[in-house]
Write a structure and sequence with these properties.
alpha/beta, Rossmann fold, 2 domains, three-stranded antiparallel beta sheet, 14 helices, 14 strands, 42% helix
Length: 405
């Protein structure tokens, strides 16, 4: 019932959202005499904050229409090259063919936010790489006739996408997908699959969540799996195409994200109020650009979410050497020719330092010349793949590693 109540509440708030937006615009319009009265800017700011807090946030666009290659601006076109019920493989096709650039598959997390959260990641790699990304679908849009989607299906998708891309592909898995990406590459290596990636980079993810457990890790181990199923899984209501599909709703995930840094978000909206009041459009744009992305969330399929909680965060199966994919033991030691890089943020409060580096202890047969680890001081979870540190310090190291293996 919680999902139904949430949707009814959002529908009931829609008139308030429209009213707040209209009032904010009206009180800021220079031709409105009321806009020149004392306090009108503060009132406009208050209405603007109400608008932002009550409106719906749709799936964001990447909006990467150009990139710069060798000093020349070239057009970029997004193309879907492989469609599946729960996700698709998207290609950022540059208008200039550069045969020498490495092919890179970025594996986006299926953990609440859309793949566009990695916009900065894609943007930094586009000038020197032929970039693809996994674009996961909001589970509320997938009809129940398409069946379930679990962690094993996620691994199958990655193997299929890599097979489609072919040999010499490089993989960058960010956050949640470090475990399924490592499992997929392990299986392909053991099978001597011709499309086994040339390199695998794992960034800020829970290869071994037992290392310095963070709040999300502690939450997973403090409850039985039945608690998550009973409290966090709800059926999608009509009129969504995925009506009656059982999911972990995006709005519940967002509540958890916000509660982890509640004071920071309160301060951000206080800043938005001041920016509107003081007529600082650049600050307003920065705030809204971030929250348009942050507040846009997707539902996760029940099976996938519960699989991840149990196998990754409660039983640590991959780290303990007992991770099975459709009855077959996954053996990271089978990886011998694929280069391995791990990247962590020194202040990551989602996947603490050491959790991702643990992959090196599992991939014992990767030659020393083909492996490396980078710890970025002073960087949190989001800053590892977006922002100044990513652009200036982390991505250059990743590019050198990809070129070297």
């Amino acid at each position: 019932m919680m999902y139904h109540v949430h949707e009814l509440t959002r529908t009931a708030l829609m008139p308030l959202t429209l009213l707040a937006g209209a009032q904010s615009a009206l009180l800021q319009h220079p031709l409105n005499p009321l806009s020149h009265l004392p306090g009108s800017r503060s009132a406009a700011s208050a209405w603007g904050v109400v608008t932002d807090l009550t409106r719906r946030y749709p799936k964001p666009r990447f909006d990467l229409e150009t990139t710069v290659c060798d000093g020349t601006t070239v057009a970029v076109t997004e193309r879907i090259v492989r469609r599946k019920p729960f996700g698709q493989l998207k290609h950022f096709e540059r208008s200039v063919a550069r045969s020498g650039d490495p092919r890179l598959l970025i594996v986006a997390p299926m953990s609440g936010h859309f793949a566009s959260l990695l916009r900065g990641t894609v943007e930094a790699m586009l000038p020197d790489h032929d970039v693809y990304i996994t674009d996961w679908r909001d589970a509320c849009l997938v009809p129940v006739t398409e069946g379930c989607f679990g962690l094993d299906d996620y691994i199958d998708y990655l193997i299929e996408f890599l097979a489609h891309l072919g040999p010499d592909t490089h993989v960058l898995a960010v956050c949640q997908p470090v475990v399924p990406a490592l499992a997929a590459v392990s299986l392909m290596a053991e099978d001597e699959h011709p499309a086994t990636p040339r390199s695998l980079t794992l960034m800020s993810g829970p290869v071994d969540g037992r290392v310095a457990p963070t709040l999300p890790c502690q939450l997973a181990t403090s409850h039985e799996l039945s608690w998550f199923r009973h409290h966090l899984i709800h059926p999608v209501p009509p009129p969504y195409p995925g009506a009656m599909r059982r999911v972990y709703p995006g709005f519940m995930q967002l509540t958890g994200f916000i509660n982890m840094n509640f004071d920071r978000h309160v301060d951000a909206y206080r800043g938005l109020f001041r920016s509107i009041r003081d007529d600082d459009p650049e600050a307003v744009t920065r705030h809204r650009d971030f929250y348009d992305e942050y507040l846009a969330v997707m539902d996760l399929p029940e099976t996938f979410y519960l699989d991840t909680i149990q196998r990754v965060f409660q039983e640590f199966q991959l780290a303990r050497g007992c991770f099975y994919h459709r009855g077959r033991l996954v053996n990271p030691a089978a990886i011998k020719t694929t280069g391995l890089m791990t990247i962590e943020g020194g202040k990551d409060d989602i996947s603490s330092p050491g959790q991702t580096r643990a992959a090196h202890d599992l991939c014992v047969n990767v030659p020393e010349s083909k492996r490396c680890h980078h710890l970025q001081p002073g960087v949190g979870h989001y800053g590892g793949f977006n922002g100044r540190h990513w652009r200036n310090e982390i991505s250059p190291r990743l590019k050198r590693f990809i070129r070297a293996v």
